[in-house]
Design a protein that fits this description.
single chain; mainly beta; Immunoglobulin-like; two-stranded antiparallel sheet
Length: 112
């Protein structure tokens, strides 16, 4: 995942598997993004102001803004609802109801 400065892959571990952030496109033009991101340095910088956390390259961008629910959590605390948004210009944004340090979610859409 091409994260912007200030955000890195969270790399969650589930059993023997590392769930790294990634994106791909199938033969029908559907783009799949699985993202687990954290702020770097580890601070609660994912807020309602919509932090840009990554840039998706041409060929993987949607025709219009796509929004999906996600899960976010602050550093050393219980989390809650967050939102992932992918814009037509390739910006990937994460919003948090409360300030979060981490966010995890998935989104699927048709590429333009």
């Amino acid at each position: 995942m091409p994260f912007v400065e200030g955000f890195v892959d969270r790399g969650l571990v589930a059993g023997d598997h590392i769930l790294a952030s990634k994106y791909c496109k199938d033969l029908f033009g559907r783009v799949y993004i699985k993202m687990s991101v954290q702020s770097d340095p580890l601070e609660n910088t994912i807020t309602a102001d919509a932090s840009i956390v990554a840039m998706i390259p041409e060929g993987f961008r949607p025709r219009e803004t796509i929004i999906a629910t996600a899960y976010g959590w602050p550093n050393n605390s219980v989390g809650g609802i967050a939102t992932i948004s992918v814009r037509a210009n390739g910006q990937v944004l994460v919003f948090g109801v409360s300030p979060y340090a981490y966010a995890h979610g998935q989104i699927t859409y048709l590429a333009k």
